[in-house]
Structure formats: structure tokens, C-alpha cells
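Blinded run. Sample ID left blank on purpose so nobody reads anything into the name before looking at the predicted structure. Input follows.
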Amino acid sequence: MRNFFSAFAVSAFLTAPLLAEDVPAGPTPNDIVAAAPSGDWKRIAPSDLLVMDLAPDAAGKARRVVIQLIPAPFSQGWVGNIRRLVAARWYDGIAVVRVQDNYVVQWGDPEGENPQKAKPLPKGLTAVPESDYAANLAGTVKAAGDKSVGHDAYAANTGFVGGWPVARDAAHQWPTHCYGYVGVGRNNSPDTGTGAELYAVIGHAPRQLDRNVAIVGRVISGIENLSALPRGTGEIGFYKTPGERTAIRAIRMGNEVTGLPAYEYLSTESRSFAAYVDKRANRQDTFYVHPAGGVDVCNAPVPIREVSR
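Blinded prediction complete.
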């Protein structure tokens, strides 16, 4: 649990900002990220990336979305299912079926609710229990003196673990629904979904979904190819006709895609990230009149960059 506590110590940046000699007066968060040394960045393994190619747009332009899968201890049953679905090429030919404004873009089998027409799922998918929405930390978390980005309306503490925003209570921690994050569609409880139906958040962070739906990843490139899609005209943003849908040509793991760029994220245990979060909470550059003095966990997105291999 050492990484958990060092990551959650990020709250110290809010209550005890870095010294002036550490962070020059007036830099923006982007300035801090741009100045971060190479050692503060961590490479994302291509095998942890989903590459989703949508049908080209009306002008013939290719549309690609790259998703980073969430690492252990979170949502690994669903992530394992997603890997099996990719290996079976099950996602090829499905479609974006729902776009709800200020909420989500959802994709899956358009006939998935019709048992006679639904695309058969590959064998070996796991039925994941609801208990896996959060990682169990019973007996390992010491609340006394533990600092974080802070309390919010949804959790006793929020912070960052291994490059991901998380929330927690005395016994559990769980990933949060932030902009661009990818979750698993499901029916009513006790169903938890298989991973065959996925969605990406394209609006204000719907944190009420935390611990109610599995988070399995985040879009790290191409979110505009989802967020700019036409809104659905049916109930809760579902498309009424097949012609409104956007086809998904293929989804592959990153290590299967020739020429895919490499990606890195700013380590959430680095001094650069500490300075970045502090500056997100305490803007003192020329544009800001009143620094907020705090920051929501979803309003300090972990910086991710494309790099040459």
C-alpha cells in the first residue's frame, strides 16, 4: 500500500504549497507539465491500449479513438472480458448506439436487447460481482493523518493512485467517473455487464455512477470523435434509426496496430504532478483574479502525451 499513501499525499500540495523556489511565481498548469523532466513521465504499454476505428466521417476523414485500460486492482474482471472480446474480434461491426448530451457516448451491438438477433458473445467471459466496483482495503488503510485532494460530495477522500483519479472511504477505494472515462453498460442490478457494451463520459463528471458501474479505462486520444457525434433523438440519447448510428470498423489492442504512437502519463507520484495539482487549485497567473483554493479530482486530469517510439 506504499504507493497508495504516497499518491494520496497529494493533498499536502493544497494545504502546504511548494516553496517559491520550487515553483516560479505565475506559471500555468500547462507550463508545469511542459517543464516536467523525462523521468517524471511513465510509458503506457501498447498492450494496455484499445484502438477503436470508427467509420470515416462524411468528408472521408478517418476517426480513431485510443483508450487506456485501467490497471489492477480496479475492474480486472471486466478488463479481462474486454481483452477476450477484442481477441474474438467481437467488437468489429458494432456501432455507437447512443449519444446523450452532457452525459455519455455508448457503443455496443444494436440488436443486443433482442435474443433472436443479438450477436453471440464469445465463450469464457466472466460474470463479475458488484463487489468488484471497489477495491477492498479493509485492515490496510490508516485514516489518521492521511491527506488527499480532499472530501467531496461523493467520497470521504479523493486523490490519485498509479496515474488514475480515485475516491475512497475507510475500507475501499474506487475509480471515479471523470470526463473521457470509459465504463461498462449494464442492465439493472445484479447485472454488472460483460464489457460488450461500453460508454465514454462526454459531459460533467457523473460521479453518482461511482461504485454503481465499472470503470475500465479512459480515452487518451480522439475523444473529439465521440463527443462531437450528433445527439440521439430517442429517449436518453439512443438513436431511433440505424442510419443515425456510427459504425465501429474494428477494435484492436495497441500492440496489434502498426504505426501507433507511444503514449506517456505524468507520474502522479512526481514533484511535477504535485506542482501541477497545486497550481490547478491555486491559479495565480495573469488570467485569474481569485484562486479557487481547491480542486475537484476530475478537474485535475492526469496529463498524457504522445511521444515518438
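Unblinding after everyone has recorded impressions. The chain is about 15% helix and 25% strand.
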